[in-house]
Design brief:
With 334 residues, the chain is α+β, with helices and mostly antiparallel strands. It has 8 helices and 13 strands. The strands form 4 sheets. The protein has a 5-stranded antiparallel β-sheet, with helices on both faces. Strands 6-3-8 form a 3-stranded antiparallel β-sheet, with no helix packed on it. It has a 3-stranded antiparallel β-sheet with strand order 11-12-13, with no helix packed on it. Helix 1 crosses helix 5 and helix 7 packs across helix 8. The N and C termini lie far apart (44 Å).
Length: 334
């Protein structure tokens, strides 16, 4: 059970992200947000207010994909990040990586059959610059490319019905250590259904994870979960809660930013998590579709003398917190 819930939890935010998107756009097509994200929009976790987003629900079950990146003016920060089904940011194209515009085919090798692309463009202002980005978004192209062989499809088409788990749309907001028995069972059924098309990012871990999942009651060929006799979900929740909180409270999970009261997730724990399923579950809950530290940092404020998990600032529904800085960070792209 320990590996099950930690391993499968990131599938929930993927479903929460993909199902609304698939109701607005076909899989493998680019859907662009032409306005800034509002508090009512749940498609992006902790969105930036100076960024326009374009999204793709990636489905490689039947075809390969060709991506065309249009010409983007120098100095503009943008990124085309590629994520597997669990939210691992395994590749990026964009201004930080000095990626040229043009056609990309056979360049990105997805580790899972399904995945996500969440394209980001920084805005210089919220008025005329929105139209500049919208014009760029309209030129992004994603096209299916038939494979040379005629073998059977690798998996079913990605669809809302295929992703349906019976869980509520807000289930991904539930702390992984506090799932009800029903929600746990539904999550494990979802894991059983998707795992055959989404093995571990670290291929050397495939045998271990598959063995654990099978022994714990997941029928991977049928895509269903059958709880073993006398399974104790309550005890499992307590163990997972302790493990997740231990990772959050560990000083090695963070780096201090220039001796200030701001911390950021350690580079080794950012974006692409390999076999660290505890960190992957924590990030999926708190900030799904996190970028690699080489592309973006996510500072958190803990107050003077604070440490991870302490002195967290909170605002009520009727208030806001305003931070002032002496200048922009000393990096290119802003």
């Amino acid at each position: 059970m320990l590996v099950l819930l930690e391993y499968g939890y990131p599938l929930l935010p993927y479903v929460q992200w993909a199902k609304p998107l698939l109701s607005k756009a076909l899989n493998n097509s680019v859907y662009s947000e032409t306005g800034l994200i509002s508090p009512d929009d749940k498609s992006v976790v902790r969105p930036n207010v100076d960024t326009l987003y374009s999204e793709v629900a990636v489905d490689l079950s039947h075809t390969d994909l060709e991506l065309i990146i249009p010409s983007i003016p120098n100095g503009r920060f943008y990124v085309f990040p590629f994520y597997d089904l669990y939210g691992n940011n395994f590749a990026n194209l964009g201004s930080i990586t000095n990626s040229p515009n043009g056609t990309y085919l056979g360049f990105i090798d997805f580790p899972t059959t399904y995945g996500a692309i969440l394209i980001r463009f920084v805005l210089y202002n919220n008025d005329s610059d929105v139209e500049v980005i919208k014009a760029i978004q309209e030129q992004i192209q994603m096209s299916p490319i038939d494979r040379p062989d005629t073998s059977d499809p690798a998996a079913p088409w990605l669809s809302s019905s295929f992703l349906d788990s019976g869980l509520s749309d807000d289930a991904a907001l539930t702390w992984p250590g506090s799932f009800s028995n029903t929600a746990t069972t539904q999550l494990l059924n979802l894991t059983a259904r998707l795992y055959p098309y989404a093995p571990p990012d670290n291929t050397s871990d495939t045998t271990r994870v598959t063995t654990y999942l099978t022994a714990a009651g997941l029928n991977l060929s049928a895509g269903i979960y059958s709880p073993p006799p006398n399974v104790n979900f309550t005890a499992s929740n307590l163990i997972i809660d302790a493990r997740l909180n231990a990772q959050l409270d560990s000083p090695t999970s963070y780096v201090n930013l220039s001796g200030s009261s701001w911390l950021a997730t350690a580079t080794s724990l950012s974006g692409d998590f390999q076999s660290d399923y505890v960190t992957r579950a924590n990030v999926a809950w708190a900030g799904y579709l996190q970028l690699l530290a080489s592309v973006a940092i996510y500072p958190e404020y803990y107050g003077l003398g604070g440490s991870a998990g302490a002195n967290i600032l909170n605002a009520t529904n009727e208030s806001a917190l305003l931070f002032s800085f002496s200048g922009k960070p000393p990096v290119d792209g802003f």
